[in-house]
User: Which sequence fits this backbone?
């Protein structure tokens, strides 16, 4: 049976797992994944979440099968403590501290939609593998990096980045810096619908 010390230790692990996961989500991906510390950060997130959620869930199932409701209930309560620690205390507090707000998420979503609609008109556009990365720099500016996969046919509009920038400005009043990288694909066979 978990005592107060075990519950407190689990809560500390859960809160730190939530905080680390939130920091990883809001960190610039290009600076995180390419560095050894970014790889360590990804590993720490997985390990902390695994040790916070899997053991109580497993004990809960085993106790249920062995028909020991007290053990199952205690494991369930520990699982709830861990979930609250990860999601509410750890994640939401870091997101609030770092300034992530719903309005920013909505602006980022709108920028992605407008950019996606603009690049969909490129001749030979392939949606699979094409990536739109949006980074909000401040309240009025953003950076958009587009990796556009397309078949080698047709002509790519010469001012595609400018078209994306003006479309986003009209839709969101955000000034953006756009970089478009085009990857020509010689052959492509998609999944039949």
Assistant:
């Amino acid at each position: 049976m978990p005592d107060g010390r075990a519950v407190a230790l689990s809560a500390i692990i859960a809160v730190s797992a939530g905080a680390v996961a939130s920091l990883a989500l809001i960190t610039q991906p290009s600076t995180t994944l390419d560095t050894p510390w970014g790889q360590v950060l990804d590993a720490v997130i997985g390990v902390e979440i695994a040790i916070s959620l899997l053991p109580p869930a497993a004990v809960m199932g085993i106790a249920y099968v062995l028909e020991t409701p007290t053990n199952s209930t205690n494991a369930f309560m520990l699982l709830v403590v861990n979930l609250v620690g990860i999601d509410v205390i750890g994640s939401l507090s870091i997101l609030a501290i770092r300034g992530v707000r719903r309005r920013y998420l909505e602006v980022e979503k709108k920028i992605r939609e407008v950019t996606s609609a603009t690049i969909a008109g490129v001749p030979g556009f392939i949606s699979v593998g094409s990536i739109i990365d949006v980074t909000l720099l401040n309240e009025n500016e953003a950076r958009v990096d587009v990796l556009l996969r397309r078949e080698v046919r047709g002509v790519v509009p010469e001012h595609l980045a400018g078209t994306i920038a003006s479309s986003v400005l009209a839709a969101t009043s955000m000034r953006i810096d756009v970089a478009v990288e085009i990857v020509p694909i010689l052959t492509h066979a998609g999944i039949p619908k």
